[in-house]
Amino acid sequence: MKYADEFRDPVAAKALLDEISKVVADIGATAEKPVHIMEICGGHTHAIFRYGLDKLTPAGIEFIHGPGCPVCVLPMSRVDECVELAERPEVIFTTFGDAMRVPGTKKSLMQAKADGADIRMVYSPLDALEIARRNPEREVVFFGLGFETTTPSTALSIQQAAREGLTNFTVFCNHITVPPPILALLQDPHMVLDGFVGPGHVSMVIGTHPYDFIAQDYGKPIVVAGFEPLDLLQSVLMVLEQIRDGRAEVENQYARVVPESGNPVSMAAIADVYEARPTFEWRGLGEIDESGLRIRPKYAAFDAEEKFGIGYGAESRLVAEPEGCACGSVMTGRMKPVQCPQFGKGCTPEMPLGALMVSSEGACAAYYQYGGARAIEPAE
Amino acid sequence: MCLGIPGQIVAITDETRMMAMAEVSGVRREVNVACIALGDLDALVGKWALIHVGFAMSEIDEEEAAKTLEALRGLGEAQETLEAMAEGDKALEGTQ
């Protein structure tokens, strides 16, 4: 229990861990026959490794790391398109810093910047709006990346740009949504998930109802969780109790931040600006129905895909993963990060080959950063 | 970028654009408050909120703010967000 001292409240952590062990024993789960719990959100993946929750909890629990890291599921072809946009002389390409190191087929945005493209890392799309106001002679493109946590920010920024009549601001929309990949995973006959820990901050925006199908149609428990280690332990316990009791419900452990019906202003802005694409490409998971968003025609003037003719669907750009990269298998839970032949060799956080090694929320980077010797040595 | 950071609203800066000054871990940053505004914007001054990429998304109490900030510090996310804010300031000037 070497990590336990770092808990804000070690006594509470110990009590939760004891209770988890008891319920795991009640269920009869063992290392050979574990319950599989997927934490959907990359922030949760990071926290699980940071606090060693995968080692503190009994061997009868196996965490499967979900697709909830937007940088990690970004296909290389989207990065290529970003580079293509950024290298146009009239363009100032603005992006969250997280996207800078994701490898494209030729280069990352970081390399494109070093080669002279005007690429600026911003904290917020509001920064991109301000850059557009200050540079009326340039085309300012913002890379709209992320799940429902960042989608309201670009939707509200586009609405603001429309109100101001800005003509040099567009969003390169590659926003994705959480529920469709979960549906795809549940429909995969090879997937053996017993329950889910649901994302906290995404749910703050969309509420808990979008997960109803997980419980109602697929009979799996899901508990929306906060980000403190104690939140995560409590949520895992709630999932286990549902499994033990034969229940499948959507529960909200993070009710102090997540309202059941979400944030109405955010959801109205998203609905006003965006519509679902019929299908969208996810790195490692392939095409998933209605899993990506595009800008509605009434905001076409703020749509970089429309203005520059570049983007998903403009032309077929399916590209193979780099040689030896197993991101796809890791993403779907078929392979552990350490089982990838490139892990820690051809692929490290300093020189990532695959997207799961880029972000601290990616399963491979988390294994590498916190796993130490345990991660490098093959599993027993 | 995915996890919000707690900040305290200290002043309303632009009512039309629904902008406010927030203090985030000792750093001041202008944020949009449309998602937590229920009528009178001035009522938000002094309140705490979870701020996502420049947008206040959920009002929280001071204790929750402190716990969340501690959790984010533990993950290194608080520092990353503050660095991103500083980068954003440089981006405006074109000095990155």
From TrEMBL, chain A:
One GO biological process term: protein maturation
Gene3D superfamilies from the UniProt entry: 6.10.20.100, HypD, alpha/beta domain 1
RNA-binding recorded as keyword: no
A GO molecular-function descriptor: iron ion binding
This protein's record includes keyword Metal-binding: yes
Keyword entries, A-Z: Iron, Metal-binding
Domain of life (superkingdom): Bacteria
Pfam family, any one: HypD
Protein family per UniProt: Belongs to the HypD family.
Protein name in the entry: Hydrogenase maturation factor
Native species: Tritonibacter litoralis
Gene: hypD
From TrEMBL, chain B:
Organism, as annotated: Tritonibacter litoralis
Function, in words: Involved in the maturation of [NiFe] hydrogenases. Involved in the biosynthesis of the Fe(CN)(2)CO cofactor.
PROSITE patterns xref list: HUPF_HYPC
Biological process, per Gene Ontology: protein maturation
Protein name: Hydrogenase maturation factor HypC
Taxonomic superkingdom: Bacteria
Gene Ontology terms, MF aspect: carbon dioxide binding; iron ion binding
Pfam families found in the cross-reference section: HupF_HypC
Lineage: Bacteria, Pseudomonadati, Pseudomonadota, Alphaproteobacteria, Rhodobacterales
